[in-house]
Amino acid sequence: MRTNEIFMAIKTDFPEVRQEEETGAVIIPKESLLKITRYLKNHRLAFDNLHCITAIDRTGRVELAYTLYSISEHHGITLKIYLTAGEENVASLAELWKSANWLEREVYDLFGVIFLNHPDLRRILNPYDWKGHPLRKSYSHPEVSIKPRL
Amino acid sequence: MAVTERIPASKLIQRIPGGGVFLTTSENIFKWGKASSLWPMTFGLACCAIEMIATGASRFDIDRFGAGVFRASPRQCDVMIIAGTICVKMNDCIQRLYAQMPEPKYVIAMGNCAISGGIFYYDTYSVTKGTDSLGIPVDVFIPGCPPRPENLLFGLMKLQEKIRNEKDADK
């Protein structure tokens, strides 16, 4: 199925979703994440593979992006959640897809998003005693040498 | 051609003309042996490790210099080739591996990342700025990104030269 067809299929059952213009990603409210992902996994759309979770820091809000893929149906979709500053927390998908466990740890490590009900929310790339979340725009580290701008 | 002329350490070992007798000191024999059987550690960090593997394979054949016996344990190694980018999370591991190597031990910093951080010097939070900053003394620096196998072999020959010319008998 094409991205627009998948979007329309989601839209009929969940009228609260909308489509991001420039990317075609499906923007969903934070509260309905578990409901929609459970639907996407078990519906005829058959999204059996959570491919990637990543985030974008837009200074002021953090965008979470979930890339889903269906191995049996050969189609994919990107879900996005806009998290407002100070409320960077969202439900964990670790019980739906096993791959979510480490992907969410990575997003927590680098962006500081808290995944509620995650079975083991530790850092995964940086050392366990690391301070801060490096891919946030506000991050600074004393040992980073800034390249001189010419 | 006399056999001694082919031996790199032949200056240290003198042959008495007309007889099968050689004159040398025991230090020189040890140095010759040390330089000719450097056992590196099986230890690669990033893309330089691929060049190190190529150097060990048949086309370049590091075994010609007696350094082809890559050991899987630091306890059996003489030389540690730091081949690649050192991430901050790897610091403790490298220091521990170096400490576990028995004396005499040597370190080759292979590639720009192992020398100074290389292309990751600026604007990076997760890369250590060179082997020196870990407090590990480096014997030979091999620049390149990554260095070709020929460069690694040349660095190895430089290390052998350094070992043969060592003044201190302890190392």
Radius of gyration of chain A: 17 Å
The CATH class designation of chain A is Alpha Beta
Largest interface: A-B, 11 and 9 residues
- Share of helix among residues of chain A? 10-25%
Largest sheet of chain B, described in full?
Answer: 3 strands, parallel
Number of domains of chain A: 1
Shape type of chain A = globular
Average of the residue pLDDT scores of chain A: 91
Number of domains of chain B: 1
CATH architectural grouping of chain B: 3-Layer(aba) Sandwich
Record the strand order, biggest sheet of chain A.
1-2-5-4-3
Q: What report would you give on this structure?
A:
- Chain A is of the alpha/beta class.
- Chain A has a single domain, classed as NADH:ubiquinone oxidoreductase Nqo5 subunit (Beta Polymerase, domain 2).
- Helix content of chain A is 22%, strand content 26%.
- In chain A, the strands form two sheets. Chain A has a five-stranded mixed β-sheet. Chain A has a two-stranded parallel ribbon with strand order 6-7.
- The longest helix of chain A has 12 residues, at 100-111.
- The radius of gyration of chain A is 17 Å and the shape is globular.
- With 171 residues, chain B is an alpha/beta fold.
- Chain B has one domain (39-164): Rossmann fold.
- Chain B is built from six helices and five strands.
- Chain B has helices at residues 3-6, 26-36, 47-56, 91-100, 112-116, 149-164; strands at 14-15, 22-23, 79-83, 106-110, 140-142.
- In chain B, helix 2 packs antiparallel against helix 6 (149-164) and helix 3 (47-56) packs across helix 6.
- In chain B, 32% of the residues are buried.
- The chains are: A alpha/beta (150), B alpha/beta (171).
- Chain A binds chain B through residues 125-127, 134, 139, 141, 143-147, and chain B through 88-89, 121-126, 129.
